[in-house]
């Protein structure tokens, strides 16, 4: 039964993107849209947007580098570890929880290190993977999306994003405890 389900999911995964692209092209053709011209026009706008957000990305990457190199990450990990233990989160996963709102690649690197040390099927590995999916790169999102449309005042977006990340981390811990035990 499970083998058949896996085969169905694999078949859907294999064909979903080509079918989706063909569907878009077909819909455009039916609506008499010049699909190729629309695509190239969108690509031009994408390049323009990418050039506009480069200063914001550079600033964010420098800030992340300073955050990691300054030792603040280690100090925060040490300070947050008692709270992490209280909610049932292994302290080894705290650096990933701190890095995830800043950088997806940085968090992925930490997750891969946790996989190498503890294994992907360990509780720590499963929790790290669940946290990766349950949270987002809040600062990156604000940098790219707000920067691309030149919004300087983010108002409540940052606190709301960080609260969502915190809820995602706590939820990941609770779900992993319920599903995988420990």
How would you sum up this structure, described in words?
- The structure is a single chain.
- The chain is mostly helical and 182 residues long.
- It has one domain (52-180).
- The protein contains eight helices and no strands.
- The protein has helices spanning 2-30, 35-69, 72-86, 94-99, 104-118, 123-134, 138-148, 157-180.
- The protein is flat.
Q: In sequence order, what are the helices and strands, one letter per element?
A: HHHHHHHH
State the major sheet. Answer: none
User: Share of helix among residues?
Assistant: over 70%
Number of domains: 1
Q: Please provide the count of β strands.
A: 0
Principal-axes shape call: flat
What count of helical segments does DSSP give?
8
Poorly predicted runs: none
N- to C-terminal distance = 29 Å
Proportion in β-strands: under 5%
Cα-atom Rg, whole angstroms?
21 Å
Structural class: mainly alpha
Mean pLDDT across the residues is 89
Summarize the structure.
With 182 residues, this protein is mostly helical. It has 8 helices and no strands.
Features:
single chain; 182 residues; mainly alpha
